[in-house]
Amino acid sequence: MDVTVCRFAASRLLRVEIGIRKMLLQRTFWVVIALIIGLAVAKLHIVDSRPHRILLDTDVDTDDFFALLYILKLNRSEFELEAITINANAWTDAGHAVNQIYDILYMMGRDDIPVGVGGEGGILEDGTILPDVGGYLPIIEQGNSTAGGCRYRQAIPIGRRLDIDSNYGLRKAFLPQGSRKYSPLRQPTAQQVLIDKISAGPITIFITGGHTNFAIFLLKNPHLKKNVKHIYIMGGGVRSRNPTGCCPRNASSSCEPIQCGDRGNLFTDFISNPYAEFNIFGDPFAAYQVIHSGIPVTLVPLDATNTIPINEDFFKAFEKSQHTYEAQYCFQSLKMARDTWFDDQFYTSYSMWDSFTSGVAVSIMRNSHNKNGENEFAEMEYMNITVVTSNEPYGVHDGSNPFFDGHKVPKFNLEKGGVHSGHVQTGLRDPFCTMQNGKGRCQDGYTKEVKGSQGVRVLVATRAKPNPDTSSELDRAYFKSFLDVLNHPQQTGKFNFTTQFRYYKEVLYKPDFGSKKLGKPIVFDMDMSAGDFLALYYLLKLPVEVINLKAVIVSPTGWANAATIDVVYDLLHMMGRDDIPVGLGDIFALNQTDPGDCKYIKVIPQGSGGFLDSDTLYGLARHLPRSPRRYTAENSLKFGAPRNTDHPELRQPLALEIWDSIVKKLEPGSKISILTNGPLTNLAKIIRLRKNSSSVIQDVYVVGGHINHSNLDKGNVLTVHSNEYREMNLYLDPLAAKIVFESSLDITLIPLNAQRNASSFSKILQRLGRTNKTPEALFAYRLLSRLYRLQQTHHRYHHMDTFLGEILGAVVLAGDSFLNPILQIKPIKVLADGAESKDGQIVVDEKQGKLVKMLQAVDPVAYYDNFANQLGVNKQSAVIGSFDEQRRIWSAQPNS
Ligand SMILES: *[C@@H]1O[C@H](CO)[C@@H](O)[C@H](O)[C@H]1NC(C)=O
Ligand SMILES: *[C@@H]1O[C@H](CO)[C@@H](O)[C@H](O)[C@H]1NC(C)=O
Ligand SMILES: *[C@@H]1O[C@H](CO)[C@@H](O)[C@H](O)[C@H]1NC(C)=O
Ligand SMILES: *[C@@H]1O[C@H](CO)[C@@H](O)[C@H](O)[C@H]1NC(C)=O
Ligand SMILES: *[C@@H]1O[C@H](CO)[C@@H](O)[C@H](O)[C@H]1NC(C)=O
Ligand SMILES: *[C@@H]1O[C@H](CO)[C@@H](O)[C@H](O)[C@H]1NC(C)=O
Ligand SMILES: *[C@@H]1O[C@H](CO)[C@@H](O)[C@H](O)[C@H]1NC(C)=O
Ligand SMILES: *[C@@H]1O[C@H](CO)[C@@H](O)[C@H](O)[C@H]1NC(C)=O
Ligand SMILES: *[C@@H]1O[C@H](CO)[C@@H](O)[C@H](O)[C@H]1NC(C)=O
Fold first, then answer.
1. Above 50 in pLDDT, residue 23?
2. 456 CA to middle of ligand 5, Å?
3. pLDDT tens, position by position, 680-696
4. Which string of DSSP letters, residue by residue, matches 284-345?
5. Helices 477-487 and 325-339: crossing angle, nearest 10°?
6. Cα gap 886→501, rounded to integer Å
């Protein structure tokens, strides 16, 4: 046979083979046999000479990118990573996760690898799966939008998600930034990337997060299943016994074991469900679909990963072995994980989860002629397992199971009374899941061994193999491979952020106001939605003799996730205001604690027009220059962290601390004005915890609230039908709003109707287009025109004028008399009884209401002019216009 046939695609080859066989039918038996043997040899040769194509589906936790870097470092003629899809339903938030992946790939010189994230499709009531389901929600909660609950995701502590989104602050300190980034409606979706790469030929899938993306792919594209050769999964616990919180053998009798011996590892609240592991718990129904798909599966569960915890010897060896940028990045991340670990059990409870799985997988693939998964790193055993998706008794209708409840025909035609028809865990504190004796009984997400037809035969890693070199301090074979691969010089990272530029220099810009008499002190409380950044530009442009912005406090209970605080730092850096402190507020609305049920925040879409866009400032955040100030994980003993890291001085201050420091430094007799552009969580906390705050607060401008004047006059909480007359900022933390509106503060409310009367994109853009082109005016123009274009292009962006309206508060606060504001004084109160239909509602109450100034309208033309002109003023303008400008400066020799 001609060897060039080897280059043909496998299916093509098969056709050729059949064709040849047909042609040869007339010839002698012996010739046929000879040719077939020849072909078989040729085929074997092909398998060996072409790289294994791999697609990685990841939730971008720390150990996920260890796995990613390990794979990227392998010999590309053996293993080719074809694509990455992001599971947006677990440890990270999509906008932060995707940009981190882009940065890692850029560092590694692999801008060619496609990355898929999100998508706006939904699943209809009848089970129809629309194209491009984003996988932001587990399948059981997936409706026709990307907004929804967090019954499984609440297992992931939201504070930890902040650390993972920002990689503890290391991501921005270390990773270089290339040209790829998330961009609205241009970002390839997870499903598109899966379809493209799987249609292109035989491929192996690695899953190191929740299974939502791949399960949806299988349900929607059963015809492409044949191209998936194998699935390698990190997840589950089959016969595992959790080593965390165990009492040592010599322990005194007072030692109480915590999660010791459980199958699972939901350390946040394992009482209700001692069986589940995070990745599978993220979407048990999806994991069921994947494991029962008929595609060969290899599982690397806790059984095996518990036997390869990061121990002190490995940690020390790693510390000494950082010869590449990728090794440096991994080590620094691991060190941060250790230094911020919640107790002193890091070395027994932090395992090589995903990277170990990638090692086991590639080692099995290398030995693919071995049937039983022999490999260098783990012992393997076949087991028959399933994934528990609901709890016995089956066939109940207790309101916990949206696949069945309220459906005549169950969704996806699931079997009535079958394994999916029992009680589904509704949250970590679901009372059904905890028995009277305090023991947990829910098994959702348990990879359980079963007999008979309920199970699937799966190859399971049972333990990590020891290092054959017994003289080495590394006691596991994989430890050695991990350090070798990460440190070898081939396919290595090009640079980190600081070595990318020859003349890189870290600078903080602080203004010198000399002897100027500074104006009214302001604290700006924002939730980091797009409009808030425009309002922040405006506040920074007002002459400091009139308005003196003292601090920014951010509330992550609104439109953006906490890690977006870095965008605030970058904008302040651009404007030369690294002197302005930034405080981070509570991650939960009042009356909510970890594990939160996301009762209010669930109304914000995860995808387009929601978190994905806010977290990236609609794709524009990365045009801002990069500030040396950034979020850093709490890592200093001084502030109650478990231990000091390398830089205990770099700690993210809290909103209340910033407030206290501002109050302390206030000149006698002067008072602060507060502008709130988000939920009132921070302000309510100040009122509650700082009893004398009213004596230092001059007045408060609250952007938010809505009173409907007819039933056509809806609010902007459109995803909760019983509450569609409310406004988001009050709805997102109703109790906080109630506290604020019961206080003695002097409040001016800028409600939705007033905002709507001054929110014409075309007019404000026209004005901005004519103003002086300062970098900030250009940026504002760019952001607003992007919002406007998106609004006209896609229905998920219908609410964009909400953000335009948010600028109004800052302009009203500045108090330009040309605005002709019409104010009305009304006695109001805010409802916060916990009832979804009423929470956040403003009622006029002549007897008990608090008198509040409500803005009715401003002169819109004066308002647009004022905003545009102010941004065009040359004074107090940007000191560094953009990231590009920053790169130019760092690339050229300084003049001095
Ligand atoms: C990668 O594998 C190919 C084919 O097996 C081999 O020729 C090549 O030398 C390998 N490259 C490295 C850097 O090991
Ligand atoms: C679901 O969303 C699609 C657009 O993505 C829309 O066309 C359809 O009407 C919606 N269906 C329902 C039942 O809301
Ligand atoms: C980048 O790499 C250089 C050289 O290895 C190192 O000195 C520097 O600390 C690294 N930067 C960061 C942020 O770790
Ligand atoms: C238990 O033994 C270990 C060493 O085996 C020792 O380090 C530890 O202090 C002992 N703990 C107690 C409570 O005696
Ligand atoms: C496991 O499943 C296979 C078929 O998938 C079956 O042949 C085998 O008997 C099962 N083993 C056990 C112990 O149930
Ligand atoms: C307000 O109260 C705090 C203690 O809660 C105190 O330290 C501070 O001096 C008081 N400030 C004023 C202005 O009274
Ligand atoms: C506001 O909308 C609700 C719900 O449709 C309606 O009952 C109420 O009458 C409306 N308020 C006014 C003042 O029209
Ligand atoms: C808001 O604008 C509309 C349309 O321009 C106008 O009819 C209405 O009177 C305005 N409302 C107020 C309170 O000015
Ligand atoms: C808030 O929590 C407190 C104590 O946990 C409770 O008494 C109160 O009813 C809650 N308020 C609301 C509005 O849920």
1. no
2. 8
3. 999 999 999 999 899 99
4. HHHHHHHHTSSS-EEEE-HHHHTTSB--HHHHHHHHH---SHHHHHHHHHHHHHHHT-SSS-
5. 130
6. 10
Q: Is 185 in the pocket of ligand 6 (CB under 6 A)?
A: no
Cis peptide before 184 (omega within 30 of 0): no
Identify the DSSP state of 130: P
SS3 of residue 524 by DSSP? strand
- Structure confidence at residue 343 as a pLDDT band (50, 70, 90): confident
372 CB within 6 A, ligand 8? no
User: Atom 6 in ligand 8: which residue has the minimum CA distance?
Assistant: 757
Ligand 8 pocket test: pick from 753, 755, 757, 822 the residue with the most ligand atoms within 8 Å of its Cβ.
Answer: 757
How far, in Å, is the centroid of ligand 6 from the Cα of 270? 42
**Which residue bears the tokens 């938010």?**
704
Contacts of 710 (CB under 8 A, 6+ apart): none
- Single out the residue of 47, 24, 134, 131 nearest to residue 607, CA to CA: 134
- Is the C-beta atom of 735 inside 6 A of ligand 9? yes
Q: How far is the CA of 264 from the centre of ligand 6 (A)?
A: 48
Cβ 124 under 6 angstroms from ligand 2: yes
Residue 216: which of 188, 187, 194 has the closest Cα? 194
Distance 710 CA to ligand 7 centre (A): 5
pTM: 0.92
Q: Is the previous residue joined to 243 through a cis bond, with omega within 30 degrees of 0?
A: no
Report CA(834)–ligand 7 centroid distance (Å): 21
DSSP-H helix ranges across 400-529:
477-487
Rounded to whole angstroms, how far apart are CA atoms 537 and 545? 16
